[in-house]
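2024-03-11 09:14:02 DEBUG pipeline.ingest accepted 1 chain
2024-03-11 09:14:02 DEBUG pipeline.ingest length=408
2024-03-11 09:14:03 DEBUG pipeline.predict start
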Amino acid sequence: MDTKLFQLQSLTREEFLEHQKLGHFKCAIVPIGSIEQHLNHLSMSMDIDMSRFIAEQAAEQLYPNVLITSPVSFGIAEHHMFCPGTISAKPGSFLSSIFDVLESLLRHGVIKILLLNGHGGNISPINGIFEQWKLNLIATQNTSVELINKKVINNHYEYIDALLGNKKNRIDIRFNSYWDFIPEEMINSILETKEYPGHAGEFETSLAMYALPNIVRLDKLQSSNEIGIQKSSSRKGEKLAIQSINGVVNSINEMLFSNKGKDNTTGKRATVASLQLCEASRAPMATKTQISVKANYGIVGDRHAKENGKRQILILDKEILDRFQLPIGTLRENITVENLRSQQMTAGTRIAIGAEVILELTGDCAPCSRMDEIKEGLQKQLVGQRGMLAKVIEGGTVKTGESITLQA
């Protein structure tokens, strides 16, 4: 199988079975959208085309682990029915169709599934039923789960906890819109209108100009009096799309490699691989075997140490450096970690290093233009993979080789 073929509808039954025998297609992305009016400058397929584009780009990076199903093109769009051409599904039939897709995939052994949405009207209906879907599918499709574990269930709260919290459960179903993977602060720094996802405004139009130029009517775009449309650009869309794609990739990696019940997201022991100090601007990073960190300050001797600062420490997964074939310290990280997958964690997550130190992640580190000095095009490639910023909650000494665990 030399060709990257990951569209379910494009595979023969023999090809699909061969992939499964090889351990491929452990996860599926189900693109969801809508067919509805998007003013006069975007085609009605904008929502489904965009979710499908993000899904395809992520699946290509993750091949052969990820499969894409046929897109669910129609959505709940009654509020757009004033415009001829819009197709709106009734909530009942729409939700039933999505559930049937989930159940079918699970019955065929695909137990990690991301519903990737591109239409705002689908969010509330799916969120309203999502927990019930998970309860049903985990109970009926996961033979590894003993529902009550020989324990008496007294009420529905205990039942939900017993089922969804069962460490033997291997099913992981998630629902996200593609814009969920783009930090709000990043969107605000890119868009002049600060409005997202909106409807056919600066956000969607910029994305379409970059990813889906065939659906953009340039003559209508150029003649529009809408401020958001006038402010749109392919360059803005490129930044937004790359971040969304990287976010989907990170989320799916977490689904594929997480191991419930372990201290970290890989199931292996997470450790400190290397320690570096940034002693001065543009000075080479100084490698250390141990460092001293101070609560609410940072690393003693590092130029970024600052009381109440959010960028006291930069943490980077060694796996990212390996992926880009970069030596440790090249991206000017302070703590290089292994088997932690910190890039997939969210702001507010706390990690303990050794017996003393506790750090709290504060968010992504955005790659700056200096990354292109290391390697041409690296800044763009590192969006969503530049490392995680952290502040010190409890100080002490950090040594290379020490274990890292997640805090409850």
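2024-03-11 09:14:41 DEBUG pipeline.report The mean pLDDT is 88.
2024-03-11 09:14:41 DEBUG pipeline.predict end
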